[in-house]
Amino acid sequence: MGTDLSSLERKTQDRLSRLCRRYIRVAFFYLVLGLFLGVGMLAFGNDNFQFVHVHMLLVGFVLFLIYGIGYKLIPTMFFGLPKVGSIGWAEAQFWLANAGLAGMLAGAVMPVGLGLDRIALLFGAIEAAAGLLFVVLMGRTIKG
């Protein structure tokens, strides 16, 4: 029975490591997109995409990098594995965060009446829910 527990812990640790790598890859993807968009805005003298540019860099790069490093650093260095019952909640948080940001960016380039006031607002709420889920999961880990 003791080996089953260590095997389960090892599988959970592997899933957690994959999740962290995915977050970090996506963070670098948004960094590159945000930088290219910024250069394009400068080159063409068009700052109409500031919302998209800023959200790619701050949410896509900075926040996703924090999620990726946070899932690895906080639990494993200080408190053991995340106390989420199943690593599935952390993986669900990854998909919520990505869907939220992608929808928010898509909504930001749509016309008024659909864009920032409707679609981006909806997906922004999804992004906020992902952030709250991260806080809950890390809170359980710290409390543990």
Verbal overview:
- With 144 residues, this protein is mainly alpha-helical.
- It has one domain (2-143).
- The chain contains four helices and no strands.
- The chain has helices spanning 2-44, 50-79, 88-108, 115-143.
- Helix 2 (50-79) packs antiparallel against helix 3 (88-108), helix 2 packs parallel to helix 4 and helix 3 packs antiparallel against helix 4 (115-143).
- The two termini are 23 Å apart.
Name the shape in a single word. Answer: elongated
Q: What is the succession of H and E elements? A: HHHH
Strands, total number:
0
Percent of sequence in beta strands: under 5%
What's the story with the biggest beta sheet?
Answer: none
Computed over alpha carbons, the radius of gyration is: 18 Å
The number of domains is 1
Approximately how much helix is present in the residues? Answer: over 70%
Mean model confidence by pLDDT: 87
Intertermini distance: 23 Å
Poorly predicted residue ranges: none
Structural class: mainly alpha
Number of helices: 4
